[in-house]
Amino acid sequence: MQQLHHDGNPLKRNYNTLAEYKLIEDLPDTNPLAIINADCAIVYCNNSFKNSFSKTEGEAFCDSQIDPDLVHMVRGFIKSHYSSFHFDLQLGYNFLNESNNYSVDVERIYIASVEYFVLRFTSTEERLKLEDRLNTIHNAIEYGNVPVIITEESGKVIYITKSIEKFLNKTIEDVYYSFFTSALVGLISKDDLLKAEEAFNTNKEWTKVVAHFDERGSLSYKELRINPIYKGDDRPVNYIITANDITHYLLKNQIIKESEKKLRLIINNISDLLLILKADGDKILFENANNNFCEVFSIQKNKISNNDINDLLDEKFKTEIRSAIDELNQKNTIYIEFESNRNHKFYSGKVSYLDYNITQERFYIVTLTDVTTQKNYEYQLKKSIYKEKQLNKLKTAFLENMSHEIRTPFNAIAGYSEIIQDCIESGDYTTINEFMVSVKEVLNRVTNLFGNIVEVSQIESNEISIEKVVLNCNQVLRSVFAKKIEFAQQSGLEFTIDIEEDELLIEVDWIKLEKIVMTLVENSLKYTNHGQVVLASSGNEHTVEITVMDTGEGMNQEEIKFLLEPFSQEEVGYTRKYQGAGLGLTIAYKLTKMMGGSFTVLSEKGTGTKITLSFPRVFDGANR
C-alpha cells in the first residue's frame, strides 16, 4: 500500500553544510537513515543503515542489490515536486531485525542550495509498538479522567477526551476541526475568549479559573490552561488545553486566608502594642504589626513588611529593641523584659522569639503594655508616702518647737512672778517695773506665736482673704527699714536700703506685703552675726523685684525647700541656736504666691542668703 503526502507547495529546507544538518536533525541509530543526491549516490548514512543494507557513504543506493520496488519509488520521488513521501514496503530479504516490513519516509532537503533526499526506514513492528504506546497514553488520559483538548498548529481541535466532553457538555463531533475557542463558548465570557485567542496568536500560555456545577449541582473550580507544544524550532506544532480541578486547592487557600484574616483580627484587637520582627543576617526586618503599634509610632501598616527597623523606628526605641534582642540571644532565655516611654506614656516591653524550622528563620515577638496609669499611681503613691514622711517630720518638729516655744516664755513668766513677789514683799517697786517690761515682751512673743499658727492654718485651708491695692513698694520698704534700723545698729550690723527713685507700682495686699518684708528682714538680722543686710528694689517693663540680702550663715540649697514648709528650721530640737517656731519663711512664701508673686531663695553655706520677691509691674498714665 502506498500513501503520498503533498501540500501543493513543496517545503524546501536549506542548510549550509551536511555537518549543520547533522547537528540540527535528530538522527537516532535505532532506525536506518540515509541521505542521497539526485544521482542516488549515498552522501550520509547511519550505522543502522550500513548494517541493514550493507552499503556505506559514496556507494550507489539505486542498484541491483536494492529491492526494485524501493528503487522505483525513490526515483519516482526524485523526479516529482513533492516535499515528502511516505509508503509501506515489504522488502524481499531480511534485515538484521526480525521483521522485514517497513514504512519508508522520503523528504526533500537542500544543503548549500544543493538538493538532497533523506530516507528513513521504520519497521512495522516498531510502528505497532509506537501505536500501542500511544493507545496506552490515550487510555491513561481517558480513564484517568484528565480533561484535555489537543489542537493542531492552526488551533483547530483534533482530539478531546471524554472528561472534557462532559465538562463542556459538547461531543467531539460538535467541536472537531473547529477553532478551539468555539469549544469554550458559554463557559467563559467574550472578553476571556478574546484573551485566549490573543494568547494563541502570540504563542503564550493562558489561564482562566471558572466555576462549574456538575449534574448533581455540586460546585467545583477548574483552571483552563492553554500551552503551546514546540518541536525543535520556535514554532509550535500543537496546543494542549487542559481543565484541571483546583477546587480542593482553592478551598484550602480559602481556609488559610480565613485563618489569616481571623489571626489579623485577633492581632489588631489586642490592646497591647504588638510587633513581629524577622532576623535577616545583621538586619532586623518588619514582618507585621497591629494597628495600635502603627498608630502610636506613626507608621503606615501597608508599608512595613520586610522594611528594616532602622528606616521606620526612632533611634531611642530602635536601640531598646536591639538591646533586648541581643540580650535574649546571649542569655538564650524565653523572653526579655524592658521599659520604654513615648509621648508621655510608659510601656512595659517584652521580647520573645519563634524559630520557623521550614525556612530556618527566627521571628521576634515584641509586646508593649501601656502601664502609664500604673506608673502614675506608683508616682502618686511615692509622692504620698514622701508627703506623709514630711508631715510626720513636720509634726515632730511642730511638737518640739511648740514645746520649746511655749515652755520657754512660761518658764520665764514663772521666774519673773517669783522675783516680783519677792520685790513686793521687800517694797522694791523700781525692780518690779523693770521686770514688768520683760513680762510684756514674753507675752507678746507668745501672742505672735499663736497668731502665726492661726495664720498658717488659715493659709493651708484657703480661709485667708487678700485685699489687693495698687501701691508703691518703695513705701513699704522705707517703713520696714525705719522700724528695724535701730535694732540693726544695736546688733552691730550695717543695714542699708537701696531703692529706685521711680515709683514701682504693684497690686498686692499692703498689710501682707509689709508683713512679708518685715519677716525677711528680721530673719536676716537674726541669722547674721556680722556684716550687712541690704533691702533693695528694682524694676523693668514687666516686673518689680524686692530683694533682701545678707552676709549671714546661709544654708544648703537642698535644705531650702524644707524651710518653706511649716515648722521647719535648719536646726531642730532643744539644742538649736535660734528661737522661733519656723513659721516665718512659710508664711512669707505662701502669702507671696497667693498675691501672684514669685519667691526665690539663693543661699550657700557660709556666704549668706538672697531672697527675691517678684511681682507684675503696674503702670498708670503718669509713670509709664
How does the SSE layout of this entry go?
Layout: E1 2-3, E2 14-15, H1 18-24, E3 33-36, E4 42-45, H2 47-53, H3 68-79, E5 84-90, E6 101-111, E7 114-123, H4 124-143, E8 148-152, E9 157-160, H5 162-168, H6 172-175, H7 181-184, H8 190-201, E10 206-213, E11 219-230, E12 236-245, H9 247-268, E13 273-280, E14 283-289, H10 291-296, H11 309-312, H12 315-331, E15 335-342, E16 345-356, E17 361-370, H13 372-426, H14 429-460, E18 469-472, H15 473-490, E19 494-498, E20 505-508, H16 510-526, E21 532-539, E22 543-550, H17 557-563, H18 584-594, E23 598-604, E24 608-616
Parallel strand pairs: 2-6, 19-21
Antiparallel strand pairs: 1-5, 3-4, 3-7, 5-6, 6-7, 8-9, 8-12, 10-11, 11-12, 13-14, 13-17, 15-16, 16-17, 18-20, 21-22, 22-24, 23-24
Please supply descriptive tags for the structure shown above.
624 residues, alpha+beta, Beta-Lactamase, 5 domains, 42% helix, disordered N terminus
Give the terminus-to-terminus CA distance: 133 Å
The rough form would be described as rod-shaped
The main β sheet shows up as: 7 strands, mixed
Strand content: 25-35%
| Number of E-type strands | 24
Please give a structural write-up:
By secondary structure, this protein is of the alpha+beta class. It has 5 domains: 2-128, Beta-Lactamase (2-Layer Sandwich); 145-250, 2-Layer Sandwich (Beta-Lactamase), CATH 3.30.450; 270-370, PAS domain (Beta-Lactamase, 2-Layer Sandwich), CATH 3.30.450.20; 375-459, Helix Hairpins (Orthogonal Bundle); 465-616, Heat Shock Protein 90 (2-Layer Sandwich). 42% of the residues lie in helices and 27% in strands. It has 18 helices and 24 strands. Strands 1, 2, 3, 4, 5, 6 and 7 form a 7-stranded mixed beta sheet that branches. The chain has a 5-stranded antiparallel beta sheet with strand order 9-8-12-11-10, sandwiched between helices. It is rod-shaped. Mean pLDDT is 79; it is low at 1-12, 94-98 and 567-581.
